[in-house]
Amino acid sequence: MNKIHYFLRLHSLSHRLPAHLLIYLSIDFSVIPLRGCSVDIHPNARWKQNGLTVAGGNGQGNGINQLSYPHGLYVDDDQTVYVADQSNRRIVEWKSGATSGQVVAGGNEEGSGDHQLSQPLDVIVDKER
Length: 129
Description:
Layout: E1 2-9, E2 21-29, E3 52-56, E4 70-75, E5 81-85, E6 90-94, E7 102-106
Antiparallel strand pairs: 1-2, 2-3, 4-5, 5-6, 6-7
């Protein structure tokens, strides 16, 4: 059995979806050879849906348990999630199972100083450092 992990950021096209919610999906799947048996899925099949909020989910804001327009993210080998929190101008680290994050870069107003970021859009972590 193989596993795929997805992180989705909801874009609010209506006023019903929050612009600060990050959703984690984990899908188990089996690899079937191209010339192997076919799998018939009944048209009325019901799928088990499991969603898990791994970062944010406490309304939009600048609290340590909130995000405001999260963009890029990175997941390390320990399932720690790093989020580029654009409007808060910071990178936030969310350890697996945590209910709040920890600011690891920025968060000190917009600017070009060593301790500042200007609307970060993506994040990558070098595990060697």
